[in-house]
């Protein structure tokens, strides 16, 4: 297959969109690597988006791709993917994700499908992990100090929240942050911070925004 | 059967990676195994000094990778254990002189003739760390019972998981039972709870470690030393033996945390 059959490149605003067309990630990625190596000067300090369409890739592959780009002074600003596992792998590395780009004249309009879904993470988020999503996020595990979760919607943690969490990042004041143990290093809802120093919670809690201030209430006291 | 490749890493510098590498290598050699330890800290080599072999270096890891010698020529035989070898790092180059695939190739070459290959990783999370974990079958994460070292260990464990090299095992180094008792140091249980991975061993603070490191004779050879005993126990656990943790009179029941698994 020629490189044109394995991927395409086009400008999207100030970024470059690489769309993988190959049957597997490895084939497309090898062709992209060759392209990057042959166009080092052109791609120096470039910000790119990779559209994986329905390809599935592991976090380790994405990790290597990000390192390769980093070595060539290229930043991966987002991943477009239809595959759920690929979205999760990108989220784990803190790369913003979207469903595959819709065919539009400008190439800038993104699908809203992700807004209707939640990202589920079945693992502990360790120091240095950044998860940045535009939908609800549920973590089955702890969020360690040094890990950061940002979401336009709600953040639900079935474990301890010891890192930073920012729900309703785009201004959604109805967003909440729940955790079995809420002892965050930093907590914000719709941009409003909460001073969480010296907290010793004894039960699951929910952080909500009320009268322009973040309030923590017991999970048990929530009424629906 | 080929050798098992063990990478010793930490994230933070100065927590005892090189000391642990030297001691585990000597302990395994003293148990009768064929061991090669490899210093992957290119540009900042130290394992040769800790093993007391700094005056015997002719070739190094980069010489092997760049084809100036065969791997056997770069292997320095230990003075005491004839089946213990060191492949030193280059001192005049940097981490980019070696790639992860070079490390995998070197380890594959060593595996048929060895029982254990132990790799001393540099501090940090960049190229040197990636080189060190690329060939690993087992990754040991060293931390001290202090918040900054634990946070760096957590970061490293996350990267090991992302590279699908785990599960990592934990060694807590330089635990001071007196400080733990006073409440001035994290307990072993605190560290295990924070990191949520298997605990392989705890090495108590021991001033003799510094002296032995300076002499180039690993502390594990000194049977009266608690730290030496702890390293020997860790080597045996690595080998699959069931050895209980030593009672260090620290806070918390350290026996109960041995074998605690990651979530």
How would you describe this structure to a colleague?
The complex is a heterodimer of chains A (224) and B (263). In chain A, 20% of the residues lie in helices and 34% in strands. With 224 residues, chain A is α/β, with parallel strands linked by helices. Chain A folds into 2 domains: 3-98, 2-Layer Sandwich (Alpha-Beta Plaits), CATH 3.30.70.260; 117-221, Pectate Lyase C-like (3 Solenoid). In chain A, helix 5 links the parallel strand 4 and strand 5 (97-98). The longest helix of chain A is centred in the N-terminal third of the chain and has 14 residues, at 25-38. The N and C termini of chain A lie far apart (57 Å). Mean pLDDT of chain A is 83; it is low at 100-115. Chain B has a single domain, classed as P-loop containing nucleotide triphosphate hydrolases (Rossmann fold), CATH 3.40.50.300. Chain B has helices at residues 17-30, 47-50, 61-65, 71-74, 100-110, 127-133, 147-162, 177-182, 188-195, 208-215, 226-238, 254-257; strands at residues 4-9, 35-39, 76-77, 84-87, 116-120, 138-143, 168-175, 198-204. Mean pLDDT of chain B is 90; it is low at 259-263. The chains are: A alpha/beta (224), B alpha/beta (263). Chains A and B meet through helix 4 of A and helix 7 of B.
């Amino acid at each position: 297959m020629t490189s044109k059959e394995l991927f395409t490149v086009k400008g999207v605003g100030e970024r470059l969109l690489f769309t993988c067309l190959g049957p597997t990630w490895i084939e497309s990625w090898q062709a992209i690597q060759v392209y990057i190596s042959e166009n080092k000067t052109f791609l120096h300090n470039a910000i790119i988006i990779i559209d994986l369409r329905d390809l599935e890739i592991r976090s380790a592959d994405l990790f290597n791709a990000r390192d390769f780009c980093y070595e060539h002074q290229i930043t991966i600003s987002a991943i477009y993917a239809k595959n759920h596992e690929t979205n999760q792998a990108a989220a784990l590395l803190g790369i913003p994700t979207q469903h595959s780009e819709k065919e539009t004249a400008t190439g800038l309009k993104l699908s809203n499908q992700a807004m209707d879904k939640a990202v589920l993470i079945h693992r502990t988020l360790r120091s240095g992990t950044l998860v940045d999503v535009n939908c609800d996020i549920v973590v089955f595990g702890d969020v360690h100090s040094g890990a950061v979760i940002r979401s336009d919607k709600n953040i639900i943690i079935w474990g301890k929240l010891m890192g930073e969490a920012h729900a309703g990042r785009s201004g959604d004041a109805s967003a909440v942050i729940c955790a079995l143990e809420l002892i965050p290093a930093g907590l914000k809802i719709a941009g409003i911070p909460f001073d969480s120093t010296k907290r010793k919670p004894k039960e699951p809690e929910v952080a909500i925004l009320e009268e322009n201030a973040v309030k923590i209430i017991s999970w048990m006291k929530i009424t629906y | 059967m080929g050798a098992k490749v063990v990478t010793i890493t930490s994230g933070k510098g100065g927590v005892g990676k090189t000391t642990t590498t030297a001691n585990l290598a000597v302990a395994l050699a003293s148990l009768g195994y064929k061991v090669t330890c490899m210093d992957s800290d290119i540009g900042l080599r130290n394992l040769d000094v800790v093993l007391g072999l700094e005056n015997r270096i002719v070739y190094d890891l980069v010489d092997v990778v760049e084809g100036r010698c065969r791997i056997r020529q770069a292997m320095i035989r230990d003075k005491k254990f004839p089946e213990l070898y060191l492949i030193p790092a280059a001192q005049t180059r940097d981490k980019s002189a070696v790639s992860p695939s070079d490390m995998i190739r070197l380890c594959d070459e060593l595996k048929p003739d060895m029982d254990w290959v132990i790799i001393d990783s540099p501090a940090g999370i960049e190229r040197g760390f990636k080189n060190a974990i690329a060939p690993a079958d087992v990754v040991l994460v060293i931390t001290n019972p202090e918040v900054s070292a634990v946070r760096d260990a957590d970061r490293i464990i996350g990267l090991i998981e992302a590279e699908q090299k785990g599960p990592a095992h934990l060694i807590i180094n330089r635990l001071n039972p007196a400080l733990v008792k006073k409440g001035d140091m994290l307990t072993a249980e605190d560290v295990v709870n924070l990191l949520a991975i298997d605990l392989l061993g705890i090495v108590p603070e021991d001033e003799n470690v510094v002296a032995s490191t300076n002499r180039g004779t690993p502390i594990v050879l000194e049977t009266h030393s608690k730290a030496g005993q702890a390293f020997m126990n860790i080597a045996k656990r690595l080998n699959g033996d069931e050895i209980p943790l030593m009672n260090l009179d620290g806070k918390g029941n350290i026996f109960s945390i041995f074998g605690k698994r990651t979530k």
